[in-house]
Specification:
- The protein has three helices and eleven strands; from the N terminus they run E-E-E-E-E-H-E-E-E-H-H-E-E-E.
- The chain is mainly β.
- The protein has an eight-stranded mixed beta sheet.
Length: 149
């Protein structure tokens, strides 16, 4: 089963990432309490396997919270999912594209930004279509085409 491993809320742009056991996704807005609200980048999601490949490439075990994403998932391949809908628990997220790694990645670990560039290792960003609560352990899946359009 694909699942949520970690959830973080970003207090301010460039600010601290607070780990939480649960969060509320607000449709059309973002993660409640997070700095990113509205627009197309309401939530960011990374895949554990992709993160581990990037860490292996830099030869360091970097805490995934350094990626500055909102959600870490296991068991869902995020590469190439632009235009698809990701379901986390009862919430639905339209994936708009790849989250490109920024210079903060090299501050966390030299070379991390480059190591995250291939295979969408930086994760994805999207728009919350249907909000609600999410928790660590919630099931995650890419919806089949036409599932709930």
């Amino acid at each position: 089963m694909a699942e949520v491993l970690s959830i973080w809320i970003k207090r301010a742009h460039g600010g601290v990432m607070d780990g939480v056991d649960a969060a509320t996704l607000v449709a059309g807005s973002g993660v409640e309490g997070s700095a990113n609200q509205g627009g197309r980048r309401q939530i960011t999601i990374i895949d554990e396997a992709a993160w581990k490949r990037a860490c292996r490439d830099v030869g360091a075990d970097v805490d995934p919270k350094e990626r500055r994403a909102n959600v870490l998932v296991r068991g869902v391949e995020l590469e190439g999912t632009r235009g698809k809908v990701l379901r986390i628990g009862s919430c639905r997220i339209l994936i708009h594209g790849e989250t490109r790694p920024c210079n903060l990645m090299d501050e966390a670990q030299p070379g991390l930004r480059s190591a995250m560039a291939p295979e969408w290792r930086g994760g994805v960003y999207g728009e919350i279509l249907e909000g609600g609560p999410i928790r660590i352990g919630d099931e995650v899946e890419i919806e089949k085409a036409g599932a709930r359009d």
